[in-house]
Design a protein that fits this description.
By secondary structure, the protein is an alpha/beta fold. The chain is built from 8 helices and 6 strands. Helices cover about 40% and strands about 15% of the residues.
């Protein structure tokens, strides 16, 4: 395709995308499409694309019925670490971020990145970050809300998986609130429920068992809400 034909094709695609709202498509979706055609979209330091996520949330609202209890426990501004359960579903973290964004107007980064070259950049566009203390600490210092999924517990309906103590140490060191979050639902159904527990804090001390105790408290709180 020569340059003239390519430019004409891009202009046509751009014009069609700008007409999407008149066809009943949300403006967030239209904007995301236009930006990708124009090459004008931006990502932040961790690869997050806000316009793409707005479009994804519009689609999520049409796929799932997500209810959130006590979402206001998540601070309006500033950092927070969410400890959340998961099973085997592929949609769980997408449901979590879409539901909390709709309830609190805050973007949630999820520490579940699969660090594979061809996959990681796309995951980062949707808010995934490395499951590593340094990356979690950087996000919290920058004022973000980070969700830390526990280990998978596919066979126990009301059970939760393991929680690595070192992953919550950045929140303790920075004095960031840690909130247990229970996610309930089924992969092939529409209804999902998210319950946000009361915030927890612990002082960083020379006693390493203090952080381990906080981790166990968070696990137990999630299990109780399930």
């Amino acid at each position: 395709m020569n340059d003239r034909a390519e430019n004409a094709a891009l202009k046509l695609a751009h014009d069609l995308a700008t007409e999407l709202p008149s066809a009943g498509v949300d403006e967030a979706v239209s904007s995301a499409v236009v930006q990708r055609i124009d090459g004008t979209f931006e990502v932040d330091t961790w690869g997050f694309d806000p316009h793409l996520n707005n479009a994804a949330r519009w689609l999520a609202a049409r796929r799932w019925n997500i209810s959130v209890a006590h979402g206001k426990r998540i601070p309006d501004t500033g950092p927070a670490l969410l400890i959340v359960n998961r099973r085997l579903g592929l949609s769980e973290m997408g449901v979590l971020t879409a539901g909390l964004a709709a309830e609190t107007s805050r973007d949630v980064r999820v520490a579940d990145l699969v660090d594979v070259p061809f996959l990681a950049p796309t995951q980062r566009r949707f808010g995934s970050v490395l499951r590593h203390p340094d990356e979690i600490a950087g996000l919290l210092r920058a004022g973000h809300v980070v969700a830390l999924p526990m280990g998978r517990a596919p066979l126990r309906r009301r059970g939760v998986g393991s929680l690595a103590v070192e992953l919550i140490e950045p929140a303790v060191a920075l004095g960031v609130p840690i909130l247990p979050v229970a996610l309930r639902g089924h992969e092939l159904r529409r209804k999902w429920n998210i319950t946000v527990g009361r915030p927890m804090r612990a002082k960083l001390t020379a006693d390493p068992s203090a952080v381990a105790t906080l981790a166990q408290r968070a696990r137990s709180a999630v299990e109780d809400m399930l």
